[in-house]
Write a structure and sequence with these properties.
Elements lengths: L6 H5 L2 H8 L4 H20 L19 H15 L2 H7 L2 E2 L2 E2 L8 H27 L9 E2 L5 H21 L5 H24 L2 H19 L5 H14 L4 H30 L6 H14 L6 H6 L4 H10 L10 H10 L11 H12 L14 H35 L3 H12 L9 H24 L4 E2 L1
Antiparallel strand pairs: 1-2, 3-4
Amino acid sequence: MNKKGLERYLVLYLPWLLALLFQSDPVLSYLIAWSGSFLIFFITLTGWVKPIPDDRRFGEQLMRPLFIQQIIFAGFMCCTSIFYFMDVLGYTDFQKTNTHLLIDQDRLMLTAQCQRYYSLGHAAFVTGILSFMKYPDENRYYIEKNTLANLLLKIALVSFPVSIIFTKVPGLSQFYFQFSSLSFIAGTLALAFAIPLKKSLNTIICSVLYLFNLYQAFLSGFKEPIIISILVLAIFLYPNYKKIVIAVFVPALFISFIFLPAYVNNFRENAWSGEADAEESSQIAIDAALNNTDNSNWSFFAFRLSEIDMFTTFVQSTPKNIDFYGTKLLKQSAIVIVPRVFWPGKPITEELVMERVYAAGVVNPLSTVSAKPAFIVDAYLSGGATGIFLFLFAYGAISQLISIKAERLFGGYILGTALIFSGLFQILWRGLSFEFLINSVFWSYVTMFIIQKVLLRINILKRF
């Protein structure tokens, strides 16, 4: 790969610097910071800042951090706030609702300030990825290519019951999410392998697994698992069926964003209130979402799709009323890493996280609402703009290094990044509070080595 000048990395920070320069005009400052993320997407995904790895074709490496993780993590973090911004300006469903209503200037200034932090965080995040994006030219391990399709199916079938077992072991339930996600990724990847190979039995079994996972996603009460189920299958099928994927999955994702808000709201009203079980609630929610065409999703897009409203509340209270936390959140994360099976009296992670939520006044301590801060919020709480730069750079760097390590351990991209990294470390796609994310990544890293040793022991993975 041709090396490019380090000055190109500085371009990543131009949107943040320009938005900072025009901070006295909050509307212009917000728009510069918001549109700047699209510039960052363009110059990184086209290889302008640093060349794209040339060991695989573009469409065959989309599960690497620069692509899917950046699109989901940074896209959700930086781009979804536009609806909230329009709501601040007095718009509902893209129409000005009251031309006589004065805009809350304090709220507008805070919104622009948080968007600038998003722009800085996005730039630091991709800097971390690109700084360590050097995939190995040679692998120490390999797997027979003609066994790959069957192996992926076996991993999918084995991982699912293993995940169920972990739900029965006190203190180890966190491993359920790792192996459940691994089973889903393996099954979806196996389906993408089986179709072009015309392996009928594998295709049928993998299709059943995929539909089961999609069904479970609909019963979860969350929109993310449904969207990810569609997106991951599209990415895996893209190298062999580019036109079909673009024609089918792009509209499917668009429809999902329109349909899911009404579905999720109706599902939760019935399932979480105890008025109906999950299956009945799902059917009621589907009927309501399909038939209630007059129902506006604006509230969802403005206040729930993005987390900027919560971010502004934290920025208001820190450091004005509450000092920066420094290394406190990292220390709490270290405590959380210890499995509860070895420390039954370990503090409850949810309660540790909610302490700062209550202190900032995001939600009332007497309410039953859970409002965990996003990763960038915890980075800000730890040290302001400096904290955002340092932690988001580390976030990108660690993601990239884990992806590289996975490919070294498992003989390349397919098992390394597409399966292991995407399956065990899927939490990195969204970025939760420090305590939840660091705990999950630590034990997923341990699990990755255990899986590699097992595959070596049973002679599926072989040394050169």
